[in-house]
């Protein structure tokens, strides 16, 4: 694949807006909704070849979008914080699963320029960090001039994988709850980005209390495009005491195996890795 | 649009399409033209405002007023000199294709962590796509460069 400049496109002087404040950015975007929003640009610069835009709205200089604010119960992360900076700044207080997911966004030089908001908005691609943030109950703020809304990250995409952002809206912040989870697992096989290559990411998250399992979550990300979560089986596990019996473990594995994507999207090795990952995670609880 | 930036201590102004990548406009002195042009092979890595980035993913409008250095521009940097020496000692200098990428990766890692752990080294080495340099060689060379640089700094401080 060749870069834009090397395709011999005609030279053009399209406007580039680089506002320094969020209100200025939202104002510009309201007036010109067809602008192409650019944060880190690692995806756009590679794969997007849109000539229908009237210019670029670059968010790299917006101060509000580059802040990380921590409180006792949550961390608010600006959507234009570079992934590597977020990793370095947040590894002491962000959930470990999130920092491990940040490490899988790409190579260190790419992470220097890629932003967390951009990583969540790649069309048709589910990066491991997206799945990690989803099971951590992350919410994202979508702002337009005059109003804003918070959306659960799990509701941020429709069934086809397209992001649900209305015209004139910009992703501005992420709110990551800082619960203390007792068990986590993140295993990645192959390179999850760019999407479409053979890869598998196995993510598990659980919390135990005196009575047994209080929370249990398990996600598979296949080839960077498909995500499997077995919510009913997860709910069944809540309240069970540990160690889980062989029968309980078997019922969870059956729930995973009955997912249609599990059979169609994974090869034998992938299925073995996924089942083994789930089994090991359940055994780790006990 | 006119974009002005400093490349290896030389101020340059170029007339560029804002969507052009930096890779297209900097003279390839130290860095190599990568085959991927999508930031995966890391051969065109440059130091942009102190951070290592693949030049083929940086749009021109982002480099206005910024400082860019490639391996040639870093030649006088003591850490970079130590990395070069360590790479020569391990034998990686023979691979001219991937060398700038590997040196830049080592430079970023050692700038952040002077004495990286095995896990930190592996986090970087797993992104090496070159077939003529093994991950183990890169890790050995980077570890050696870190030790040499630490010793040099210690001697300078005495």
List the helices and strands and how they pair.
The complex is a heterodimer of chains A (286) and B (158).
Chain A lengths: L15 E2 L4 H10 L4 E3 L5 H4 L8 E3 L9 E3 L3 E5 L4 H8 L5 H7 L5 H6 L2 H5 L7 H8 L3 E6 L2 E6 L17 E8 L5 E7 L10 E10 L2 E11 L3 E4 L1 H7 L8 H12 L2 H6 L2 H18 L1
Parallel strand pairs in A: 1-3, 2-3
Antiparallel strand pairs in A: 4-5, 5-8, 6-7, 6-8, 9-10, 10-11, 11-12
Helix pairs in contact in A: 4-7, 8-9, 9-11
Chain B lengths: L1 E6 L2 E6 L6 H4 L19 E4 L2 E4 L12 E3 L8 H13 L8 H14 L5 H8 L9 H23 L1
Structure characteristics:
heterodimer; A: 286 residues; alpha+beta; Uridine Diphospho-n-acetylenolpyruvylglucosamine Reductase, domain 3; Enolase-like, domain 1; 3 domains; five-stranded antiparallel beta sheet; four-stranded antiparallel beta sheet; 11 helices; 12 strands; disordered N terminus; B: 158 residues; Ubiquitin-like (UB roll); DNA polymerase, domain 1; 2 domains; five-stranded mixed beta sheet; 5 helices; globular
Structural write-up:
With 286 residues, chain A is of the alpha+beta class. Chain A has three domains: 6-58, no CATH class; 65-177, Uridine Diphospho-n-acetylenolpyruvylglucosamine Reductase, domain 3; 183-284, Enolase-like, domain 1 (2-Layer Sandwich), CATH 3.30.390. Chain A contains eleven helices and twelve strands. Chain A has helices spanning 22-31, 44-47, 83-90, 96-102, 108-113, 116-120, 128-135, 231-237, 246-257, 260-265, 268-285, and strands at 16-17, 36-38, 56-58, 68-70, 74-78, 139-144, 147-152, 170-177, 183-189, 200-209, 212-222, 226-229. In chain A, the strands form three sheets. A five-stranded antiparallel β-sheet of chain A has the order 4-5-8-6-7. In chain A, strands 9-10-11-12 form a four-stranded antiparallel β-sheet, sandwiched between helices. In chain A, strands 1-3-2 form a three-stranded parallel β-sheet, with helices on one face. By secondary structure, chain B is α+β, with helices and mostly antiparallel strands. Chain B has two domains: 2-69, Ubiquitin-like (UB roll), CATH 3.10.20.30; 78-157, [2Fe-2S]-binding domain (DNA polymerase, domain 1, Orthogonal Bundle). Chain B has five helices and five strands; from the N terminus they run ββαβββαααα. Chain B has helices at 22-25, 78-90, 99-112, 118-125, 135-157; strands at residues 2-7, 10-15, 45-48, 51-54, 67-69. Chain B has a five-stranded mixed β-sheet with strand order 2-1-5-3-4, with helices on one face. In chain B, β3 and β4 form a beta hairpin. In chain B, α2 (78-90) crosses α3 (99-112), α2 packs across α5 (135-157) and α4 packs across α5 (135-157). Chain B starts with a strand and ends with a helix. In chain B, 50% of the residues are buried. The mean pLDDT of chain B is 83. Chain A binds chain B through residues 1-6, 9, 11-14, 16, 18, 38, 41-42, 45-46, 56, 58, 60, 84, 88, 103, 106-110, 112-113, 194, and chain B through 1, 15, 17-21, 23-24, 36-40, 42, 45, 51-54, 56-59, 61-62, 104-105, 108-109, 112, 123-124, 127.
